[in-house]
Amino acid sequence: MTVLTSIGKAASPGPRQLAGRRRPVRETVFLIALQFSLVIAIAFLAVLLAYVISKGWARLDPRLWENMPSIRRPENAGAQSAIVGTIYLMGLTALFVIPTGVLAAIYLEEYADRDKWYNRLLELNIQNLAGIPSIVYGILGLGIIARVIGLGFGLITGALTLALLVLPVVIISAREAIRAVPPSIREGSLALGATQWQTIYRQVLPSSIPGIATGSILALSRAIGEAAPLVMLGAATFVAFNPESLTDGFTALPLQIYNWIGQSRPEFGVLASSAIVVLLALLLVMNSVAILLRNRYQKRW
């Protein structure tokens, strides 16, 4: 639009108006680039899923989760011990990491004095730990948890190591979820006479559960696919029994897949593809639980 001056002449558009005219073009280009990136990501995922499912479809039957692994008879081999070990690992890891991560996030967001040097150092270390390679956590679990503490190389050692691996992610995501709660909720609760802990327990935490659940499930989704820390801990790639206690030996789906891929017979490649499909199905179930929890508490709050 042209702008009329006080003497009736049309003034030339200013820089802001020109920028406003160019902005829709830039936004359109940026939107197209985002959509193109999304299409590429989905296309690669679809190709990967199609390849894995087509290759492992012949062994996606009850033998896969009912039979134990075998290195001599691939036609009857299964992955029961790896599936059970993975489920136990994820359950113990969630039991260790979610309460610890949420409580640490509550302290850092609600109680910690950011002017104190040790609180700033703690926050810095948490952010740095989130980017450390997983093999370093495997060395930590081997040297401290397995040998110094003396827990051995059983299931509990693997779960504690994976919990340390994803703990920084859980803390960071929980802090973001707690920080997103409007301050008016806290102020209103305190104004009505509630203590700080009652405000956190009855108002802040329920409002932040969707974000905490999403971050925790994503962190566990990373842990379920990690093989390097378990290799450092000496987890066996061939286990023909299910763990019955926290100190028993174990295996997991990533290790079992690695073992089958390393075999020379082509039947083991089919088994590995079918085990990958099972691993992806477990990831899908975990993410679905996170979505259900998020939707449930968003409707409630």
Automatic annotation (TrEMBL):
Task: State one molecular function term (GO).
Answer: phosphate transmembrane transporter activity
The stretch of residues making up the signal peptide is: none
Domain of life, per UniProt, equals Bacteria
- Indicate yes or no for the key word Transport: yes
Which SUPFAM superfamilies does this entry report, sorted A to Z? Answer: MetI-like
Every ABC transmembrane type-1 domain range: 83-289
Keyword Cell membrane tagged: yes
* PROSITE patterns per UniProt: ABC_TM1
Major location (coarse): membrane
What GO cellular-component annotations does this UniProt entry give? plasma membrane
Membrane-crossing residues?
A: 29-53, 82-108, 129-149, 155-174, 223-241, 268-293
What the protein does comes down to: Part of the binding-protein-dependent transport system for phosphate; probably responsible for the translocation of the substrate across the membrane.
Instruction: Give the similarity note.
Output: Belongs to the binding-protein-dependent transport system permease family. CysTW subfamily.
Q: What is this protein called?
A: Phosphate transport system permease protein PstA
- Organism of origin is Spongiactinospora gelatinilytica
